Predict the structure.
Amino acid sequence: MEQFLFVLGRNWKLSLSELDICLRSTPFKGKIVDYSSNIAIVEFDELLNDEFYVDKLEILQYYLGGIQKIAKISDFISFLTLKKSFPIKAIRYNEIKKERQKIKEILNTILDDIFPNIKNENIFFATSIYPNLYDDVYYKEVIIKHFLPFLNTGISKILKEKGATKALYYKYPQKNIDSGNLNPIFPHHVIKYQLLKPHRAEIIFGITEEGIYLGRTFTTDDPNFKKKIDEERPKREFKSAISPKLSIIMLNFLNLFKNRKEKKILDPFVGNGTIALFGLIEDFQMYGSDIKKKKVLNTIQNIKWALNELELPQIPNIDQKFKVVDIKNLSKEFKEEFFDGIVTEPDLGPFFKERPYYTDGIELVETRLQPLYENIFKQAYKVLKSKSRICLVAPVISVLDDSHDLRMEIEAMAINNNFKPIPLITAKRIINKSNRILQFNKSKIFSIMDAKKGQIIKRKLYLFEKE
Ligand SMILES: C[S@@+](CC[C@H](N)C(=O)[O-])C[C@H]1O[C@@H](n2cnc3c(N)ncnc32)[C@H](O)[C@@H]1O
């Protein structure tokens, strides 16, 4: 069965979860058959029977917030062959030579698959190696320093033997190679170097505990487009805004991949409208509300600007869709059982410059956050259609005088209000790994953290379905 390699984002658990939820949906049914902290290997049930499956893969790439690239896999090399051809200590030179010859033969075959024409072509390629984990000593010491140069010169030589006029490759900075800190090229490089064109390619080598998957990049995320919308919109608050990627991932957790244009999604804490903007870009009908009039006006201004930039039609009666509403009155301002989903990042507490004391944290949770979240579930139940989902962020607060973070009983609150927790990762669907860092310690994971190192208020993502 044909396999595809998905390059995961920085928060690989979140990317894996988004991908798995998408692979449970009808248009993209499939399974993750292997993974590392950087890639997932996917087999689709039916997608490939479709004559236009490449278009579908492009739609999938466009829909997924946490996937950087999708590659089509041409071959696989077992981990044993890799270790024998590139051992940590080179002693048995004859065996090494023999094993490396096997890799060269595989490269010889896959290059015909990767490039439709080689003879008399000016070929340019970039080699991207995704390790199992970036801080693997084997990656730093052997893969970057020996395997990468072997691939670059080997592929170039084979291409010339096959009749290419030129076979140049992308040269990574030598200082990164020497220090062992090397990231494969980013999606914007794939676009900049035009590596999706027939005579140019990004050749991917994705390593897992099982071995190396070899393939060619088919589609890539367009980060410049998202960045432009996010950073150039007229109203934006740098310190508090959720990222475009996280907004898109949360929208995908609603599991609405069919007839998106008909699906009505609400963000009742719309702020400057990040979720609403990216929801519109991802084809949903978006609605929003906020307690502050200024925020609602900012969102409307941002949406009008974005639609104008994208040369899309403006939304008629936009002020009927984006309104000033306190969450406790949500069901008075929007019709009951009206929405197909809610995606939101509510008030997460004040922007702390330093970690608060435990007592101050508890006071914040008990007096402000807990009542707010109670109201969210009460009101969401009323305005959501039955079996529809709410995906929301809740804060996890790091305090000065306790090693444990402060968090709310979000699941209990949701269950009390007749919502069922939906697992973000079901271990049964994803083959487990032997490296502890890559394992899932529970059979079902109901929340995933998204935070940077040292962040005082961290975002935790939850997903629930109205019973
Ligand atoms: C963390 S911000 C949301 C930021 C938003 N995701 C964005 O991209 O700009 C939370 C928002 O909730 C609003 N808010 C706070 N309390 C509220 C309430 N009781 N009802 C509705 N909105 C509220 C605030 O005005 C603020 O705009």
Summary: The longest helix spans residues 358-383. The pocket of S-adenosylmethionine is lined by residues 240-242, 269, 271-272, 274-275, 290-292, 295, 326-327, 345-348, 372 (CB under 6 Å). The chain has two domains: 4-221, 227-466.
